[in-house]
Every structure is written in structure tokens, then in C-alpha cells.
Design brief:
Elements: H1 9-19, E1 28-29, H2 32-38, E2 41-46, H3 56-64, H4 69-74, E3 76-79, H5 83-95, E4 99-104, H6 109-117, E5 121-125, H7 132-140, E6 146-147, H8 154-170, E7 176-180, H9 185-197, E8 202-208, H10 213-220, H11 243-252, E9 255-259, H12 261-273, H13 285-291, E10 302-307, H14 314-322
Helix pairs in contact: 1-3, 1-8, 3-5, 3-8, 5-6, 8-9, 9-11, 12-13
């Protein structure tokens, strides 16, 4: 008998109920030109049109909406480079919960400004020196605030899986679903939803070459800690897979591949200039894998892609578009 996984399809369905009428039901887009370039028929689930501009709102709201009254009174604290920060900040505001966010000093200025705009108190830390789990615990100490995990939590994972749930219900007979891969919350929720609805549909994750903790960990059969990643995709600069996300992904996911930053930039340019949709580099990672041939058997397949977010710093986007 195998050990039970941290989340089930019922958890994703329960999350969908909590998010109904709160989260945006984001559009699914197609691009004839992208299909011609890749040889596949690709459906983009555009979480760049989600509240706060990223899928992270789903998991944050799902988690915070279940907190007991005493935890809400103490407030919440989270560490994030940006999208989780904004998701927690907006969710906390909607639910009337005091919120403090710890952001790395090099987080995109636009994401820090947006987080403050949602009413959170923002503090910074040096990501090259300090581990986020340490600084967030220190910040929570004085008021015993509740620490909101960024990915390694069943409520977060289940909430993120609702994007794939919507995609699978809207687009039938997908043969492959691809997501960006950082901490693994999105991919673990996605694979839980997809495999429950369509067991034969393959699910894959993609991470940057400079942030390959998942490829190394899956090859080793255990979670590997890497040096602070260097990649343009700031949303997936994780150093080690989560304990719970590793349990799900190592059991259910069909594969993980890496892509170069150059390929990510090319895909970002394509999506902005040809598809007319603004994405951050992290959100373009699955498209980069398809365009650069990293998904070997993609041609001829019906493929779903989770576009994780669109919160790109204006200066970064301008540089990418200038090419």
C-alpha cells in the first residue's frame, strides 16, 4: 500500500468552491502562429489575467480563507519575490487580515510597489545571504503572526490546481499539460487535477537551466539544495523543492526539463509581440520549452500550457523586447 499524497482531487474541488466568485476565471488563448512554429495545437491558460496578475492569488486566498479567527487577528507574514506576495496581500485585504511581506532586495520594483498597493507592509532581505524561511520566522516572532507558505502547503497546492481544473473542463482531450516549475505548488496542484480528470494526459514541468533544483532532485531521488539561482525568471528562483510538492511531483509528474534564459526571453518576446499578451519571463517558460524543442514529442499533440503570470518589470520587459 502506497503512502497517501498530501493533496487529493477533492481538495482541488473544495478550493474551487472557495474561489468561486472571488478569483477570475481566466481566458484560454490560442495562436495560429505559435502552433505553426511548434507543430502542436496549444491552449494557453492565461493566469496573467488573474487577480494580482498571477496564479498565486488562487492558493493564497484558498489558504487564508480557512484560517481561524485567532490567526487572523495576529496577522499573516509571507516571504516572496513578488507574485505570492501580491496574492497574500490582496487575499489578506479582502479578508481583513493584517499582512507583512518579506521580499528579496532584488525583487522587481513593480512587484514590490503592487504589494504595498494591496495594503501590506513590505520589508526586504538579502536572498544571497538569508534563507526566506528564516527571515519570515523572525518577522513573525514579535506578534506570533501566521506564516503563509509560498508553495509547500496542501491548501496552497490545492488552490493552484484550480487553474488546471478550469482548463481541463474547458478544453477536452488534452494530451499534455505543461507548467513553469519553481517550488512546485502550481505543478503539484496541476498534476493532481489533470490526472483525476484524464489519467492518460501527461503532465510536465519546466525550469530554467540556472535554477535546476528539480532536475537534480528527481535524478537523485531526494531533495537537493542548490546555490542561489541565476535566471531572468525571478518567479522560479527556488533553491530546493518543497517536501510536500516533491512527494506529489516525484510520484505523478511525467517529466521535468530545463530551458535557457535565451529561450525564455525569445518566448516572452513572441507572446508579447505576436500573441499580444504581456507575460513575465516565468510565465513564458512552458512556451520556451515548446519553441526550443525541449519537449521532444510535442508535434501533433493537443497541449495545455499554464501561463503563470504577467507581472514583469517595465525595464526588464523593454530590454527583452529590444532583443
Amino acid at each position: 500500500m502506497t503512502d497517501a499524497l498530501p493533496i487529493s482531487f477533492d481538495d482541488v474541488l473544495a478550493a474551487a468552491g472557495r474561489l468561486d466568485g472571488v478569483a477570475n476565471r481566466t481566458p484560454v488563448m490560442t495562436s495560429r502562429t505559435f502552433n505553426e512554429v511548434t507543430g502542436a495545437t496549444v491552449f494557453f491558460k492565461c493566469e496573467n489575467y488573474q487577480r494580482v496578475g498571477a496564479f498565486k492569488f488562487r492558493g493564497a486566498y484558498n489558504h487564508l480563507s480557512t484560517l481561524p479567527a485567532d490567526a487572523r487577528r495576529r496577522g499573516v507574514v509571507a516571504a516572496s519575490s513578488g507574485n505570492h506576495a501580491q496574492g497574500v496581500a490582496l487575499s489578506a485585504r479582502l479578508l481583513g487580515i493584517p499582512c507583512t511581506i518579506l521580499m528579496p532586495e532584488d525583487a522587481p520594483a513593480s512587484k514590490a510597489a503592487a504589494t504595498r498597493g494591496y495594503g501590506a507592509t513590505v520589508r526586504t532581505y538579502d536572498r544571497l545571504r538569508d534563507l526566506p524561511e528564516v527571515v519570515v520566522r523572525e518577522a513573525a516572532g514579535p506578534t506570533n503572526a501566521y506564516v503563509v507558505p509560498s508553495f509547500d502547503d496542501p491548501m496552497i497546492m490545492a488552490g493552484q490546481g484550480t487553474a488546471a481544473l478550469e482548463l481541463m473542463r474547458e478544453v477536452p482531450e488534452l494530451e499534455l499539460v505543461i507548467t513553469p516549475l519553481g517550488g512546485g505548488g502550481l505543478l503539484s496542484g496541476t498534476v493532481t487535477a489533470v490526472k483525476a480528470l484524464s489519467p492518460n494526459t501527461r503532465v510536465m514541468g519546466v525550469e530554467p537551466e540556472g535554477a535546476d533544483d528539480w532536475v537534480l532532485s528527481l535524478a537523485a531521488g531526494e531533495r537537493v539544495l542548490i546555490d542561489p539561482p541565476t535566471t531572468i525568471a525571478d518567479g522560479v528562483r527556488t533553491r530546493q523543492p518543497g517536501l510536500l510538492t516533491f512527494a506529489v511531483i516525484s510520484r505523478l509528474v511525467d517529466g521535468v526539463v530545463t530551458v535557457s534564459d535565451a529561450a525564455i526571453e525569445e518566448a516572452t518576446r513572441f507572446m508579447v509581440l505576436r500573441m499580444k499578451t504581456v507575460v513575465e519571463p516565468t510565465g513564458a517558460i512552458p512556451a520556451a520549452a515548446l519553441m526550443s524543442g525541449r519537449i521532444a514529442d510535442a508535434a501533433g499533440k493537443r497541449i495545455g500550457v499554464i501561463v503563470s503570470g504577467g507581472n514583469v518589470d517595465a525595464a526588464v520587459l523593454a530590454r527583452i523586447l529590444a532583443g
